[in-house]
User: Fold these one by one.
Assistant:
Number 1:
Amino acid sequence: MSNNKALIQTVDLRKTYKTDAVETPALNGVSVELHKKEFTAVAGPSGSGKSTLLHLLGGLDRPTSGEIFLEGVPLSGLSKDQLARLRMTNIGFVFQAYNLIPVLTVLENTAFVLELQGVVHAERINRARKILAELGIEQYANQYPNRISGGEQQRVAVARAVVAKPSIVLADEPTANLDTATSHELIDLMRRLNQERGATFLFATHDSRLLDRVNRLVTIVDGLITGDEHHTN
Amino acid sequence: MKAAIRHLKRNRGRTILTLLAVLIPVYFLVSMFALSNSIVSDMFETATRVDTGHFQIRHVERRGMGSAIPLMHDSDSVLAALDQINGIEWRTVRLDMPALASAADRSQAIYVQGIIPEEIAPISSIADLVVKGTYLKSGQSGVVIGEELADLLNVDVGDEIILLGAHPETGLGALKVPVVGIYHAPISAMGRTIVHSTLITARALAHSPDAATAVVVRVDDVKGPWDVGKIEAVTAQLRGLLPDDLEVLDWRELAPQVSGYMGILQPVMIIFAVIFFGLGALVVLNTLYLSVMERTRELGLIIALGASRWRVIRMILTEAGLIAVIGAVYGALIAVALAWIVEAFGGIPLPGAELANYMKTFGMKSVLHMMISWPQVGISAAAMVVVALLAAWFPAYRASKLEPVEAMRYVE
């Protein structure tokens, strides 16, 4: 049963990976609700199931059992193409390894999701330029990803994730490849987007330096939620 | 499209390989078509100019005639019928009959073709083939024989030979005639057996002053066997005007061996096309598959961001289509350009006299030409593009089936 007030609700979510005869449980019954405009971190040690949870919430993978509701819609009933459409319109992704498309410029990478959505060229370029300016990387608009630093690439990934105004941005270890200063800058940037644009963020991290910047911290260990703290900051 | 071009530029080596996989089959196919067109055209022109015409009107064959063609005595009415229809380029009356040519103690079975020299001059190349003496003139009593027959009978220009005509309708007839010219035959069998005389001489041999065996006709604007429709249009009109005892035979019936050779060329070309296209398709499939493998992470990302399966397929097919169109166009252009260069230098001479003589037996010239046909160029290029796109389908399909999480974990 879904809670209409929740942006995302999971009910007894389980995921087990099977390779040959070996079964590896990653999530062991996760039930959680995420609300609009939250800035939430999922923390836990490596292998605790953080990334798996984000993948399932983003419709990139399917759970072994349990259900996910996105704005009240159960994801289990959606076909592959419907899931793809849902990702395109409702979810922004930021990955650990930046994952920009190497043959597209920063501007084209930022506008890529808008292109998938069928937004006309002039409008998508305009919107992409605007978000790049907001994130302070407009000067790299015509550069290819391999010509800019890791921190700048991750900012472009954030720009791409928010440009289409998705319901939620899922960021999987977004600071893992960045130095401390750049990590703080990136988290501050996402926080600003959360406060100024009302964008909802959920990011997975095991970087304890960043956890005091979130307003909700969900802790996960061995595929189970062991803590859910709300901060005021 | 922009991304496709950049992907192609990113791995130039592979792009060039794929391009060549498309370009080379198109180049070879267009070139082979051009050579084959020229060969077919040579055979057709040789057969129809020197011997059969595009069609002949003959008396309906009767039993017991052997190799002799039945005589007709109403060729004027046939000529009158031809005057009533459109599309006739040329026609003449001919009397062909089997005979024995003898000189001293040597003899050879031959075919005498009684012709009207002024009438065949505009279209027949045989006068140009005379290498010794002269060609026939009207009213002249004499024969023009092939080099091969001259060797067999051991005669030269000015020598006399005896013709012993044997037509079932008129019986035996003998004439002593001088050799006025010796020709170099385009087909060696023709040089041994075909002897030209005037129609008057042939009629004397047949003891019949108005006899003929055929009215030989050429149709306007026929460039090769591919224009058979134009010939059929004329013969269809003519059949309605002729009496029942006359029949119309087109060049395919008159020279079945020539149309047989041409018939062999078509399946050979199809086999070559299948081989070329098959090899090209394998290379395209292989290189695109490698490209998809190398870009697994990137494709996984694109799917993760929300691209539909069809969108991914379209991306890969756009790249394949781009390479295929460029490769096919360049392949066709190079083939056409080389054909023009070959023609500018007068064609490709066949190496060695033996090969030239062998080709001659099929009515072909000793110089190969390249005759470009634009529809064939277009079809070859378009077919290769389709084949390349079909070959690209499998890698494109595989790309569309990638699971985004697994694909983004992929390490090359």
Number 2:
Amino acid sequence: MTAPPTARPGFVKRRLRAVFDVAAFLALSAGLVWLIVRGADAMHYNWQWYRIPQYFIDVIDGELYAAPFLRGLYVTIEIVALSLPLSIAFGFAAALASRTRSVTAHFLNRAYVETIRNTPLLVQIYIFYFVLAPILGAGRFTAGILALAVYEGAYAAEILRAGIDAIPKGQWEAARSLGLSPYNVYRYVVVPQLIRFVLPPLTNLAVALIKGSAIVSVIAIFELTTEAKNLISETFMTFEIWFTVAAIYLVLTTSLSAVAYGLEARLKRRGA
Amino acid sequence: MAVPGATKRRWTWLDVILLALIAAAIGWIAYRVNTELHYKWDWGKIVPNYFFRYDAERGRWVINLLGEGLLMTIRLAVWGAIASAILGVLLGLCRVSNVLFFRLLGQVYVEIVRNVPAIVFVFAFFFFISGQIIPLLGVDEFLRNARTESPVLILLIDIFLSKPELLTNFVAGLIVLSVFEAAWVAEIVRAGIESIPKGQWEAARSVGLSNWTVMRYVILPQAIQKVFPPLAGQFINVIKDSSLVALISIQELTFAAFEISVSTTRVFEVWISCAVVYFGVCFALSLAFRRFERLRTRTL
């Protein structure tokens, strides 16, 4: 709330207004849902929500099996878990390159960041899959992971560079004057402080990776989105499946965002 | 490794190593492509042909698939930026409103759109649009009437929107793109308004201006100054994200590249030139915005 209200209404009145606003919002949401349902009915859409749970967990002969959604979710998490450290490594290399005196390192850093930032992720994934994968002799899974890691690495580079810049100059000077080598300055002085600065933005990077991982479905890696597309072509439950998948992603990303928010709040409280 | 402040660039031992590595990488790639994959590069015939081709019958150069794709991308981006800016400003104002109802509305919209993967949003929303909204808009009927009544209108549509036969397709892609990008614009607008110091509100209120007048004459003029650079960056994002609507068969640059790479099997050339075109457009724009920003801050 930006604008301070004219005259602050009383407590009861404020509460009543809040209740009214929430009720109005719920009514609007219900209206939207009703419109979607009515529109779907007009298309003779056959709602089959009851069939959704079996695509999470399957029971065959009394034993539990992971069905498409859970399998896809597992692969999505696998993709994120593999490409996150890689993207941080790329980002760190690029951030270091931008801090050297070397002309070539600077050029490489700029070329990397600008290329990634000025082309669509989708095109980058196609380039990795259709052009680089055959050259490197890599499979589609490797190509997808590499594409995501290189893409997010360019953003990680900016985060890490800002983090390194945020470390006070005195820290560098003190470390150097103690006679630490450049490697040891980074190892014992810079990186431990850097981690605290960059943990919240790097958590947001993980959120971006979860969202980005959906795009590798275009090269048929069997993660959540691909599983969803295949299920839709089998069952034609387009609405139910997309809503479910969107909800799964929403839960993943918002819970991670909450973690990032909590980390940031803690960092602020400590007065870092 | 340098201490901060020591940014004067020069040639160092690191350059020697890096240049050697680059040379080795280029050599290895060339070896793999030419010797092991036996890839026959064919830049001359294929790619320029697909941007423009010589029409022997009419005796002049005409635009071809990739060129048309690029035009479609640009039209999508321009109209998408305009539409998402309007919707995004409204949502941004909702997010800073005094009324809880509007705040809830803005927040739920922004959180959902920003936390669901773009591609899932595009697929899910497109199914909804193509099934329910497009028939409601009556684009086909409008076109049929326009065809019989005014050829000028058709010409205008052809120039500013898309080929008339692809108009439905274009409108669907435009709606998906705008609704998606609006959430990002909303966050930029909110950040801009919230960055105006509280004292501005208090001062304006204390001279007796109403809430709306404060917003109109005090806050927004300052906020607009602040949101210009991120909004310019957002325009580049719209261009990049417009590639996503290729997945719902909107015939823009990425879609054209995909089709041509399949039909000609000149995979390397087509994808590299597609990326180069995107890079050219986006990089040129970002340089122009940076330059403009420097000029603007200097004159302030």
